[in-house]
Amino acid sequence: MKILIVNNHTVHLESLGKALAGHQVEVQTYRPGVDFQYQDKDLIILSGGGGEGLEIHDEYQPGQLWYEDEMKLVRMANKPILGICMGFEVIAQAYGAPITQIGSLILEPSKLQVTKDAQKLLGQKSLIQYEAHSWRVRDVPSDFEVLATSKTGVEMFRYKNLLATQFHPEKGGTLNLQHLFSAVI
Fold this sequence. Notes:
By secondary structure, the chain is an alpha/beta fold. The chain has a single domain, classed as 3-Layer(aba) Sandwich (Rossmann fold). Helices cover 22% and strands 37% of the residues. It has a nine-stranded mixed sheet with strand order 2-1-3-4-9-8-7-5-6, sandwiched between helices. α2 crosses α3. The longest helix has 9 residues.
């Protein structure tokens, strides 16, 4: 499979690379104005972030969202997209879901509550996944399908050809990236 990783300055890039072994992977590091090379790809993965605090506002262009160009990609690409952590937040925000700070960094495996639809889709009745984030999405648009939640909010959702996880499947847990491919492609 041909995959484009949009690297949101993740600290888990090596883990992503290992998890995608056997696939043809191209990595583009995100910055405003980047020309995404996704046309010949089968899947786009939006990685987690690196904790720079760029989740909400662009410090270089006050009033702008740092990830505005990535949000445009999400809305126009017409390709399967898998968002991980920051990528999850970018997809949620691209469709109007607010993200808020939790107050402290969550850095642990967490047990997630899984919906019946998710159980059918993923073949799992319960999930334990690695979380590493300090932002959350509590509500998504009504046409999004919430697949899993935790004490901090939504952990996984699906919308059209988009699938997004607040957790890090590339770091291990009940689900890995291969499980998620079948749910998005």
